[in-house]
Amino acid sequence: MTAKVYKAKDFMSKYVLSVPADCTVQELIHLFVSHPIDAIPVTDGDNKLLGIISEGDLLYKKVRPYVPQYVDVLGASLYYCGYGRYEKSFRKLLATRADEIMTKDVRCVTPETDMDTITSLMIDEHLKTVPVVDKNNRLAGIVTRHDILGVIAATDARDLIDGVGESVKNAMDSKENKENKEK
Predict the structure, then answer these.
(1) CA distance 41 to 140
(2) Own/partner pairs, 82-91, CB within 8 angstroms, 24+ separation
(3) Which residues of the chain have pLDDT under 70?
(4) pLDDT the model gives residue 57
(5) Which pLDDT value is given to residue 160?
(6) Could you give the CA distance from residue 33 to residue 60 in angstroms, rounded to a whole number?
(7) 40 close to 7: Cβ distance less than 8 angstroms
(8) CB–CB of 127/107 below 8 Å?
(9) Can you give the pTM of this predicted structure?
(10) Three-state secondary structure string covering the chain
(11) Residue 96: what pLDDT?
(12) Using CA atoms, how far apart are residues 137 and 102, in angstroms rounded to an integer?
């Protein structure tokens, strides 16, 4: 018996809380506090995915700015860890709207992506939430770690029930064979 291959469409959350690009940071914080979510997709009027905002993105607002360390070499400033790292921090620190704080390079999957691929992506990229998009980049759903754990738990329970059923069947067959031999 082969194991069922679960695809994103089988277990994703289809009803996704998303926000427009002009949503304020205060509104975002309220949404995170009032809903049990780890991330919120940012979409346009056609439901196309523009970016995603995680709880971590909003935490930048409360972190005191880190002043980059640099060396002045012949009038040029060389940053120890690269300027891009600091620019991203400052951009998020100063953000007031979703489109200013969101992550634009979003790791996504399609409804046909199998669960093993999604799980590997989440582990490798340290993601808690992965948007599911169709071929037109429209938001079709979202997969969380909780969704995957739910499939694993249901599969384990089904395997346990199937195993018990198989054991009972084997015991019944054994008893029937023994009775037939005695006749």
Answers:
(1) 11
(2) 89/60, 89/63, 89/65, 90/65
(3) 1-2, 61-95, 157-183
(4) 86
(5) 60
(6) 16
(7) no
(8) yes
(9) 0.71
(10) CCCCCCEHHHHCECCCCCECCCCEHHHHHHHHHHCCCCEEEEECCCCEEEEEEEHHHHHHHHCCCCCCCEEEECCEEEECCCHHHHHHHHHHHHCCEHHHHCECCCCCECCCCEHHHHHHHHHHHCCCEEEEECCCCEEEEEEEHHHHHHHHHHHHHHHHHHHHHHHHHHHHHHHHHHHHHHC
(11) 78
(12) 17
pLDDT of the residue at 163: 58
What is the amino acid identity at position 112?
E
The pLDDT tens digits of the residues spanning 95-139 come to 679 998 899 999 999 999 999 999 999 999 999 999 999 999 999
Token couple for 137: 């980049």
- The two three-digit tokens of residue 99, written as one number: 């489109």
Residue type, 146: H
pLDDT of amino acid 111: 98
